[in-house]
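[Meeting: bench + compute handoff]

Bench side (C.D.) handed over the final construct sequence. Compute side (W.E.) agreed to return the predicted structure before the next meeting so the bench team could plan truncations. Sequence as handed over:
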Amino acid sequence: MSTARSSIIELKNYALQSGYSALLQGIELSVDSGESLGVVGPAGSGKSLLLKVISQSIWDRNISGLESPIQSGECKVFGDVFSDKKPSSASLS
């Protein structure tokens, strides 16, 4: 008997921009229940920014000075969609 796995983190075609600078481009990611995620890369490659997107703390400070620095795509965490709107404090608790 197989157990159905559900994604706890899912990013689809995610892009983040500040002014004319692309900070993240075309991120595709899926982490299922029971899996681990490791983020490795050189300094300045966006590792911390990616983790801030996933944890939704990107909204702690507005990177671009715009309403939303998200250029495209969506991020789902435990099924809750986080796209171009600031998440409510209720969804973070």
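W.E. noted at the follow-up: The CA atoms of residues 38 and 47 lie 10 Å apart. C.D. will use this when planning the next construct.
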